[in-house]
């Protein structure tokens, strides 16, 4: 690695850290949607108890995928590594929120570095730095990072690494210089994807299967033989050892994946990712909000021209690494159309788009740098490519970078994030309410804040929009939170809460906490008046 | 070689300074944690003749998943999670140092 490469990567890493942690630099309380709270709570509980667990604590086991159909209520809903990582950084980092959120930020933009490795080794430095810089500002990853589906982003970040290591391994076979280390690294990365989130694994597997088949035909040589049977057996053994204990976590999850095959909407095969024809468009399509699909923001206007240029360049050149990138494209295309055979729900399918940004930025960069190489003489290329890359980097920073900064800088400001007053109340609940407490909340403005209240107090809860028919719901405490209404000058909410509270005052229900406009009443097995 | 070591030291220094400037002591403690997770794998992968960028990137990705997985398993033996982190770090470091260099044919 040359010194300018090391410096470029360091700058990229520091820009990523400074940018992606903006939401936690301004306000050190946690942020995100309901999923964010749930993921956070998994690591947080292990830190609190100073021990990992096999059964989820009650307060977080009742509100995710409902329950695992095979292992039952309270089972883990993801293999442990991602959430244990939160715990490790809480313990070593010496803070409940900031170290975890630095980790979350880093694991959300780390895909920039796997893209860098793939393109640097198989193409060149200009292509690699262009694509990886764009990845650091990737709007789609930023949205998902902010919302909270963070393991999914992290899992997709492994895809370029899997592709790269497999390429190196197969290449070593074709050149009769077997380097089994790359086979182990390929398998290792696939196993890690399984442990983090299966959607990234699906993209890797589909892409490498396509690449393997195409290369076998092109090279007329099977990548399996006496020379690697032992290694494959070892890898199979390790894979089973790691995967089997956690396999039922995914198998039993109620996660939007169907096994019944039914052909539908065949016309979608002609689109890359059409959403306008979806039921509920543009409001509620059963997936992320419509902004997630806004490609002008995710990339830039007319980006697809450069994607097509990249594809044409690869099709014309057709060297091994070009076939690899095309296999990645084909793999993602197949997965993005799994709903045509009825396997994925739209919500699950749309998350596959997290695998698109790394691919498209790679294609765009390959198209630009490759295009220059195709149409200029070699002695001119050395002058033109650096200038073009610098100009494009300026463009990336001023368009995508500025967009990223604005979104991260403005994200989850109060009242969208839990306040210090609410955190103080949650801590009081953690220390003073019995473990068996079940809390009803009134007044907290948003659903995600409500979720953060549960997990910061380590007590299960319910609010007016939750399902109320679970047998385990037996409310013991009522939180009446005026703080949001007061701070946002919401007179209607304040009035409604005052009326609601009257029943507890009239009945002489004991008031256990009254601080910062937040009140907590203790009831026993009481019915909730809506 | 001396120049390479100096460059690495400078990069670590700059990263630490930025983390301290942005996050204070927590930033430095975070980096210490990251260092604990990835260092054993960087040492290990370096022994298999991989290029520096391959070692760093695969070391980081491996450390972020495999280290916590091992902590999860070992915590069933070592009672405290905090202690387990250091036990796993020590064990991985020992393994990384003990594995002989195999730069050819692996």
Task: Describe this entry's structure for a reader.
The complex is a heterodimer of chains A (about 525) and B (about 110). Chain A is mainly α and about 525 residues long. Chain A has 24 helices and five strands. Chain A has a five-stranded mixed sheet with strand order 2-1-3-5-4, sandwiched between helices. In chain A, α7 packs antiparallel against α8 (about 125-135) and α8 runs parallel beside α20. Chain B is mainly α and about 110 residues long. Chain B has one domain (about 1-100). Helices cover about 80% and strands about 0% of the residues of chain B. Chain B has helices at about 1-25, 25-45, 50-75, 80-100. The model of chain B has no long low-confidence stretch (mean pLDDT about 95).
Number of helices of chain A: 24
- Uncertain runs of chain A: none
**How big is the Rg of chain B?**
15 Å
Tell me the major beta sheet of chain B: none
Amino- and carboxy-terminal Cα gap of chain A: 64 Å
Spatial ordering of strands, largest sheet of chain A: 2-1-3-5-4
* Proportion in β-strands of chain A: under 5%
SSE order of chain B, one letter for each helix or strand: HHHH
The greatest inter-chain interface is formed by: A-B, 61 and 47 residues
The computed structural class of chain B is: mainly alpha
Describe the largest sheet of chain A.
Answer: 5 strands, mixed
Name the average pLDDT of chain A.
91
The total of beta strands of chain A comes to: 5
Q: Any idea what the radius of gyration of chain A is?
A: 25 Å
Helical content of chain A stands at 55-70%
